[in-house]
């Protein structure tokens, strides 16, 4: 199965099936639901009710608004960002389907919508399921096959002068939040959600500070390195890891990054042209053109040194080794 086929199946077909199944299940439950249904919950329980259409239509519209852009990205984007967009599409569809089913399931066979309990547990389960399914889809999407460059690095690409046989390593932190920040955020969120759990019994709310904290930890403390092997980015915990082999570098240059205009925001992003961006600030960045039409942009200081060294090691990666000569 080709990577393109996997992207379509996991990033478009799977979300359509999951959301369609969720809507079909909710429709089949209609005879077992109270009339009116609970539409919204406040601190003291249900604070708004409405018809079945008032319940399902907003959820369906919200699901379409959230999932359709993700599906389009999964189908259209290729190269370095392909797996991430596939996982995002599958995960978002799973979350929205879980919300539609969960908010409806808690009302099954209820005689009075105002007495229905909160859908907290189903919501938390939907969020957790989205993380699992999104991660699994990302893995199943498959990695790109090795694609060594066949042409020389362009003569006008910047290079670093190194002695024959000499090696160099360039490393720098990716400007991002310090690890202490997510730890403080987790502590703050737990300080709010634990008392809520004690007072209301809704311990499912703990899922959110854990997930938010985990995401912040993953996105903090990144480091960029260029060496004989190519370009490598690692998170503060050693994961995630992203690597561009030297043999797949077409050329590296310095670029000026505008987060909103180029990538629609900050973080690990996909640009409107399909480039993968590690964008933590505006300004100077390293732009790497890979084989197979892929492109990576990293906002990092001293990008000129990184680009020059990366082009130099890319040159060397194209040179035959003694084993090749024999």
| Biggest β-sheet description | 5 strands, mixed
Give helix and strand order, one letter per element, not per position. Answer: HEEHHHEHHEEEEHEEEEHH
Number of domains: 2
Count of DSSP helices?
A: 9
What would the average pLDDT be, to the nearest integer? 85
- Report, as a whole number of angstroms, the end-to-end distance: 36 Å
Could you name the key traits of this structure?
PH-domain like; 2 domains; 4-stranded antiparallel beta sheet; alpha+beta; 5-stranded mixed beta sheet; 326 residues; single chain; elongated
Report a brief summary of the structure.
By secondary structure, the chain is of the alpha+beta class. Helices cover 47% and strands 18% of the residues. The chain is elongated, with a radius of gyration of 24 Å.
Characterization of this structure:
By secondary structure, the protein is of the alpha+beta class. It folds into two domains: 3-140; 170-176 and 221-325, PH-domain like (Roll), CATH 2.30.29.30. It is 47% helix and 18% strand. It is elongated, with a radius of gyration of 24 Å.
Per-chain topology:
Layout: H1 3-28, E1 37-42, E2 45-50, H2 52-76, H3 82-105, H4 120-140, E3 170-173, H5 180-200, H6 207-218, E4 223-227, E5 230-234, E6 241-245, E7 249-257, H7 259-263, E8 267-270, E9 276-279, E10 283-290, E11 295-298, H8 303-318, H9 322-325
Parallel strand pairs: 9-11
Antiparallel strand pairs: 1-2, 3-4, 4-5, 5-6, 7-10, 8-9, 10-11
Helix pairs in contact: 1-2, 1-3, 2-3, 3-4, 5-6
